[in-house]
Amino acid sequence: MSTEITQAPVVRPTILPLTDGVIHLRRGGTSVVVDVHALDGPVIVHWGVELDDVPEQLASLAAGATLQRISGGLDETARLGMLATPAHGWLGTPGIDGHGERGSSLRFSVTDIGVEDHEATLLLSDVETGLTATLELRLGASGLFHQRITVRNVSEDDFTLTSLQAAFPVPWDATELVETTGRHLRERSAQRHGFTFGTHLRESRRGRPGADATLLLTAGRPGFGFERGRVHGIHVAWSGNHRVMAERVTTGEAFLAGGELLLPGEGVLAPGESMSTPWVMGSWGDGLSELSHRFHDEWRARPQHPRRPRPVTLNTWEAVYFDHDLGKLTELADVAASVGVERFVLDDGWFNGRRDDTAGLGDWFVDEQVWPEGLHPLVEHVHAAGMEFGLWVEPEMVNPDSDLARKHPEWILQARQDLPPSGRLQQVLNLAHPNAYAFIAGRLHALLEEYPISYLKWDHNRDLVDAGSGPGGRNMVHNHTLALYRLLDELKQAHPTLEIESCASGGARVDLGILDRTDRIWTSDCLDPLERLENQKYTSLLVPPEMMGMHLTSPVVHSTRRTVSLNLSAAVALFGHFGIEWDLTQTDHTTRASIAEWVSFAKDIRDLVATGRTVFGDGTDPGLDVRGMVAADKSRAIYAVTQITTTITSPPAPITLPGLNPHINYRVRIIHPGGQDPQPGQSPLAWDRQESVLNGHILSTIGLRPPVQYPQQATIIEALHTI
Ligand code: DGJ
C-alpha cells in the first residue's frame, strides 16, 4: 500500500533547441541558469542576481562551472546535480534516496524538457530502477524561485522513497547562517553561526512545523543584516514533517536543500504511484528585507489573498479563558465595539463538556448548559454592535474524555496498543479516516450554516508524535496533512467569505502550505511586546505582515507577568493584523479613549501595512529596535523606535530609517497616536520641532538622533514625501 501524494505534473511541449543546453529563467531581478546536459544530471549553475540573456555568456557560464579532476578523487569530479546521487559520483547528501526490488542505486538522466515563460519542466528517468522524476522550476513575478520534484514508480515492484529534496546552490562566500529556533511562548529566536563544512540539518518530526522550526534557512555573506549583505534563503511550504539543511562540501559547493521528512513507510510507492515534494521556495536579496519582500510580493499577488481591510479583532481567550458567561461576553463586546473593534472572536470553551482543557475536544456541539439558547444571543449582540463574529475550533484533536473518543476510539491516531503520549491531555484524530473526516467536516459545515461565522480560529495544540494507524501502525503524518489541506479547501469552497486563522499553541504551524489556505496566523501566545519584537521580526521574513495576528496585551502580560504600557504594546502591534487580547471590561474611560486612538491609528495605516514593505534597521544601539512600514510608492513611511533597555550613549546615537527613496525629500516628525509618554529628554528634539525635511538618502544612511526615552517606551515617526 502506498500513497498518491499529489498529481504528477504534466510536462509541457518541448521547446528546443535550448541554447547550448542551458535554461535561463529570469524574472523579478532573479536569474536561474540550468545546465541540462551536464554529466551530473541537470545542474543549477546560477541562482541569484538577474543576468542578461546572452546565449554565449550563459553557455560559457555553464561550461566554466564544470570542475577539474582532482587528486584522490573520482575521474569526473561530481557537482551538485538537481537529483544528485552517489551513482553520479556525488558524495554529499543525495537529492533522492530509496530502495526497491531493483536495488538502491539511482541515476537519473534527462529525457524531455519543457520551457515556457518563467517555468521549466524537466523529465528524467532511471530505466534500471524503473523510476521517472519530474523537476519543476518556476520563477514568480517577484523573483521567488520555486522547485518541486515528483518521483513516479514505473516499475512492477514497490519502491520505497526515504528522502526527496530540492537543492538550491548558494555562492561560496555565503559563510554565515541565520535561522530560528524556539518553543511555546518564544517562537523564532534567531541564531547566527558559521556555515562551515559539513551539514547543518533542521528537522521537524512534530507533524507540524513546530515552534522551533526555522521558517527560513538563510545563508549569506558574513555580517549580513536586514538592510544589506547578500543572502539566500529557502522555505518548505508544507505543514507536516519537513527538513531543511545547509551543506558545504570540499569541492567548494555550498547549498541549501529542503523537502518533506518522510517517516518509515510513508514513501512506499506501489507500481504507478508517485510522490511529490512540497514546493520549496528560495529567495535572495541584498539584506534580509529584500529577501523577504520577494515572498511578500508573491503571496500578495495570489487571487485568494485577503484584500479587504483587516478587521481589528478582539479575541476572548485572555479576557475570560474557559469562563464563558453571556453577560460578561456581551459586556466585553460592547466595550470592544466602543473602542473600534470590528471582529469579535469567541475562543475555546463553548462546546460540550469544555469547562477546562481536560475534556470535550471532538464534541463540536454548543454546550447547552453554558449556552442554553446556543450562541445566538451572543452572535446577535456582536452583530448588532456592528462587528463580525469569529469562533475558535481545534478540529484535528480529541480529548479521550469526550463523547467522540468514547464512541469512536478507532478514529484516534494510535500506532500501537497504547495511546501515544498525550499532550495537553489530548490526542490526534485520524483525519485520513473517511468517517472521522466526514464527521469533523459535517460538524464544521453545520456550525457555519447555523451561525453567521465569518472567521474560524483553527487551533492545533499537540505535536503528532507516534502518529500511526491501522493494524500495521502505519505512519500517518503525511496523509493527515493532506486530509487537513483537503478539509480547509472544501470549507473555503463551500463558504467563500469565511476567513481562517492558523493557530497552533501560538505560532507552531506557520508555513506557506497552510497560509495558502488560510488568511492569517496567530503569531505567538506571548503577548509581551518586548518578546514579540524578535518573534514578529523573524516571522515577517516569510509572512506578509497583514497575515500576522498582533494584539494589544493587558497591562500585566499573562505569560511573563511584566507590566507594560499601552503605548508600548500598541507600537509593537501596529505593523500587522491589529487586534486586542485583553479584558476590556476592566479598563477605565481614559484607557479606553487611548485604546480607541490606537485602534483608529491602526485603521489609518492598515492599507499601508497590507501593501507596503516591512523594514528593519541594522546597526542601532542594542538598546533600541527600529522597524517600519514603507508605502509601495515610498511616499510615506511609519517607523516604531522601541527602547528595549537603556542605550549605551545618551542621547542615543543616530538611527537610520530604511527603505526610503533616496531621491526624494521627506518631512519627518514624531506622532503620538495614544497620547504622549513622559519624556526624560531635557529639551525638545530639534528635527522634530522644526519639522525637518531630509532626503531618503540621508535618512537611510546617516539617519537622525531618536528621542531620549525610558526603557519600554516607543516612539512613532512618520516620514512623508514632500516637495
Ligand atoms: C492555544 C492558542 O494559541 C490560544 O490562543 C488559545 O486559543 C488556546 N489555545 C485555547 O485553548
Q: What's the structural blueprint in terms of helices and strands?
A:
Layout lengths: L21 E6 L2 E6 L7 E7 L5 H10 L31 E5 L8 E8 L2 E8 L4 E9 L5 E9 L5 E6 L1 E5 L5 E8 L2 E9 L3 E7 L12 E4 L9 E7 L5 E7 L5 E7 L7 E2 L4 E3 L3 E7 L1 H13 L12 E3 L1 H4 L5 H13 L4 E4 L29 H9 L3 E6 L3 E2 L4 H5 L19 E2 L5 H17 L4 E4 L9 E2 L4 E2 L1 H18 L4 E4 L17 E3 L6 H11 L8 E6 L12 H8 L3 E5 L7 H23 L1 E4 L7 E7 L5 E8 L21 E7 L14 H4 L3 E3 H6 L12 E9 L1
Parallel strand pairs: 21-22, 21-32, 22-23, 23-26, 26-29, 29-30, 30-31, 31-32
Antiparallel strand pairs: 1-2, 2-3, 4-9, 5-6, 6-7, 7-8, 8-19, 8-20, 9-18, 10-17, 11-12, 11-14, 13-16, 14-15, 15-20, 16-17, 24-25, 27-28, 33-34, 34-35, 35-38, 36-37, 36-38
Bound molecules: (2R,3S,4R,5S)-2-(hydroxymethyl)piperidine-3,4,5-triol.
Report what the structure shows.
The protein is of the alpha+beta class. It folds into 3 domains: 22-300, alpha-galactosidase from lactobacil brevis (Beta-galactosidase, Chain A, domain 5), CATH 2.70.98.60; 355-369 and 392-446 and 458-519, TIM Barrel (Alpha-Beta Barrel); 615-721, Immunoglobulin-like, CATH 2.60.40.1180. It contains 13 helices and 38 strands. Strands 5, 6, 7, 8, 11, 12, 14, 15, 19 and 20 form a 10-stranded antiparallel sheet that branches. The protein has an 8-stranded parallel β-barrel with strand order 21-22-23-26-29-30-31-32, surrounded by 4 helices. Strands 33-34-35-38-36-37 form a 6-stranded antiparallel sheet. Helix 4 (326-338) packs parallel to helix 5 (376-384) and helix 9 packs parallel to helix 10. The longest helix has 23 residues, at 589-611. The protein starts with 21 loop residues before the first strand and ends with a strand. The structure holds (2R,3S,4R,5S)-2-(hydroxymethyl)piperidine-3,4,5-triol (DGJ). (2R,3S,4R,5S)-2-(hydroxymethyl)piperidine-3,4,5-triol binds at residues 317, 347-348, 392, 459, 461, 503, 505-506, 522, 525. (2R,3S,4R,5S)-2-(hydroxymethyl)piperidine-3,4,5-triol is lined by residues 317, 347-348, 392, 459, 461, 503, 505-506, 522, 525.
